[in-house]
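Title: Prediction job returns without error message
Component: structure pipeline
Severity: low
Priority: P3
Assignee: unassigned

Description:
Job completed but the reporter wants confirmation the result is attached to the right record. Sequence as submitted:
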Amino acid sequence: MAKSWYIIHTYASYEQKIERTINELITNGELDSSIVTNVKVPMEETIDIRNGKKRTRNNKLLPGYVLLELDLPQLGWKSTCNVIRHIQGVTGFVGTNPNERPRPISNEEVKSILSRAGEIKGEKTVHVTQDFVVGDKVKITEGAFATFEGTVEAIEDDKLKINVEIFGRATPVELGLLQVEKI
């Protein structure tokens, strides 16, 4: 037997409830802790910038899905999977029929999901949403040009190109979304 990661599909907004239920089933002895070794609802940190105010919140990386690390035996896997499938809100294992042995996801997929969620070492990404548009007047809050004001000239992914007036001349500056605020 080898540990592998599996994905179960759930009803919308049931992910945390199912995670708690699986952990309770392990505690109560209804699921074997040597078979179900880990349960995760991957979350991603998101920073919303609205009206010049920054708000940090955690969003589900995979809404409607829960990751399970299982050490499924060759014989007797069906009883464990049936207990999981019969939890209220679980629709089944991704990619299989109820009478088939679940298929694990690849290690590369697991590493990608868990690193995006900050669960394993690597670059933790922070998703930033903003409401800047070309032509907005902004004030620079960080960096060498802090306290300067400028106009948004272009928006590219998580960077802004801003024209700042320095010594009477317009100078283009490239800044991150978190380094400016709307005026």
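Comment from assignee: result matches the submitted record. Residues 48 and 54 are 6 Å apart (CA to CA).
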